[in-house]
Amino acid sequence: MRNSKNYNALPYNPDLKNRASEMRKAGNLPEVLFWNEVKQGKFKGLDFDRQKIIDNYIVDFYCPNCGVVVEIDGGSHEDKQVYDARRDAYLAGLGLHVIHIYDSDIYRDVKAVIEKLHKYPAFG
What is the CATH number of domain 4-116? Predict the structure, then answer.
């Protein structure tokens, strides 16, 4: 069940709505593989959103039930360490937990990634 309080209390930039929609439609493969493992409550019965707008950021996945952001990092993140650190600090300031997963781990064994997430304390 969705935690509406967590979901609706987050800052939202409506100017990013079209961009988030485009990103969902483009669906890079690691994100699609991960999505197939967590959508419709498949992961611990929790709800996840893809390409969720949080203020001026679009995060890959957001679980409003427990305030967790999951970022799938690939080659495009190699030159964005400062940006990612700033974004992660901002999200943490909102009380969110940020988990980074390498796209190569998803390609190698998405089931092992999901199993590892089962042990992450923020997911209960």
Answer: 3.40.960.10
